[in-house]
Amino acid sequence: MAGRAAEPEVIWARPERAGRGPRPVYSRSDIVAAAVRLADADGIDALSMRRIAADVGCGTMSLYNYVPRKEDLYELMVDAVSGEYEFTGAPSGDWRADMLAVGREARGILRRHPWVIRLMTTGYASGPNALRFLEHCLTCLEGVGLPGGAKMELIANINGTVMTIVANELALAERARGLPWSEEEEQAVRGAYLMRQLAGGAYPRLAAVMAESGATRIDPEEIFDRTLGRVLDSFVAPE
Amino acid sequence: MAGRAAEPEVIWARPERAGRGPRPVYSRSDIVAAAVRLADADGIDALSMRRIAADVGCGTMSLYNYVPRKEDLYELMVDAVSGEYEFTGAPSGDWRADMLAVGREARGILRRHPWVIRLMTTGYASGPNALRFLEHCLTCLEGVGLPGGAKMELIANINGTVMTIVANELALAERARGLPWSEEEEQAVRGAYLMRQLAGGAYPRLAAVMAESGATRIDPEEIFDRTLGRVLDSFVAPE
DNA sequence: AGCGCACTACGTACGCTGTACGTAACTAGG
DNA sequence: CCTAGTTACGTACAGCGTACGTAGTGCGCT
I need a surface site. Which of A147, A220, A232, B15 has the fewest CB within 10 A? Predict the structure, then answer.
C-alpha cells in the first residue's frame, strides 16, 4: 500500500520520516527548495509536480512520499521563505524602528518571492516560522502600552499593508508573465486606454488627479516608509 | 481563420461585435455572469472554460469569440462585481462616513465573491467600474485638504485594508474548499497543532497573548470599523 | 536471527485543463 | 451579388494533479 488514508492532518505534524522502510534519498527541504527556486524563476502557475521532480532528480510520484498534496507544498514554501527573516539587532528598544525594519524585511522577501503574496492571501501562514515571526514582533512590542489583541491587530495590519504595497508594485510585472506580448507593450496599451477614458470627460476628478500627479516623481521607498509609519501612528499616536 | 492575431490589446478596447459575420447568439455579459456564478459557487480554481460553456449552453470554443483569453475573463469578472457598488446617499458631506460606507460595501462584495481577492491582488482592476469607483471616492474626498496623490494613497489603503481583513475572515473557509475533509476537522487539527506548539514554551509572548485573548469575545464588525477608522485617522487626524 | 511489514521509488493511467486549429454556416460591405 | 470576415463548434494536443500498482529495502519484533 502506497498512499496514506486521507484523514485530517496538518503538514507540520507529519513526521518527515517514519522509522520503518528504506532510507529516503531526498528530503522535504530539498523538494521545497526546488519548488521555491522554480516558482521564483517562472511564477507559481508554472510550478508543477513534474517540474519539481525533474529539478530534484526523482520520479514525479516520489514527491508524494514527502508531501501528501500540492497544497501542503504551498504551505511549506511559504514557511520556508518566512525563514529568511533575520531580525538583526532587534529588539533595539525603539519599537517603531523595529517594526519598520520588520516591514522592510517583509518587503524584501515578497519582492524576491512574488508568489508568496498569492499564497498568503489564501491563508497559507501557520507554520513554525510564522510563529517565530509573531513572537519576534511581540518581543519588539513588549513595552508598548497596548493590549495583546491590539498588538496582534498591529502586526496583522503591518503584514497586510506590506503585502498590498508590494502587490501593487509588482502587479504589472506579474501580470505580464505568460502574456503573449511584452510588459512594455502591455503598459503602453493599458496607458493608452486609460488616457482615452480620462479624455472622455466621464471622470473629471480622476483626470485632474492624474494630470497633477503625472508630473511629480514618485519614490517607492518613500511611499513605503510613509505608509508603514501611518499604520504605526494609527495604533500609538507619536509623541 | 478563427482566432485573431495575438497582438497587444486590452479587453476593454475590443469591440463586442464587429459588423461582418452572423449575429452572435450569446453576449459577453452572459458569459461573465455565468463565470461569476460558477466562481461564487465552487471557487475560482474550479472555474474552467468547459464548465462556463456548459452553463451558458454553448460549445467550449465559442467562448473564445467573446473573450480572447481566460485572463481577460478574469478582468471582466472583477469589473462586473465592481459594478455592485451602489454608493447610495454619497457624497453626504461627511467624507469619513462616506469612506466607511465604501469600505463596508467593498467588504460585502468581497464576501459575496471571495475569488475577487485573489484576482485583485494579482492586479486585475483597471476596467470602467474601477474608474467609476475611483471617481466616486475622489468626489467624497472633494473638500478634504489633501493633495491628489495622498487621496489616491488613502483610497488604495482603504481598498487594501478591506481586502486584507476579508481575506483573514475567509481564510479558513476558502482553504477548506477542495480539501478531502471538512472545515471543522481542519480547524480542529490546526488548533490542536497550535496549542501543542504554544505549550512547548518556545513562544512565550505569543502564548500569553493567545491565552489572554482566548477569553475575550471578538466582534468582526467592530474590528472592521475600528481598523478602517484608523486608516482614515492616519491621513487626517480627527478634530 | 530472521520474518514480516511499513516504507521508498517510480511507471502507468485517468480525468481534467487551456486553447490552437480546421470546418461549415452565415451576413454585411463593396 | 459576391466574398471576406465572423460565428459556432468539434477535434486534438500538451500538460496538469494524483490514484493506484509493483518492486525492492531495511527496521522492529518475536
Answer: B15
